[in-house]
Amino acid sequence: MALFSVPTPVTTILLDIEGTTTPITFVKDVLFPYIKENIKKYLLEHWQEKECQEDITQLQKQAEKDSHIDGFVPIPSAISDNETENMIQAVVDNVYWQMSLDRKTTALKQLQGHMWRSAYITGQLKGEVYEDVVPSIRQWRELGFKLYIYSSGSVEAQKLLFGFSIEGNLLKLLDGHFDTTVGHKVESKSYRNIADSIRCSPENILFLTDVVKDMPLYLVTQESYPEAVIRGVCC
Question: For Mg(2+), which residues are the binding ones?
Answer without folding.
Answer: 16, 18, 210
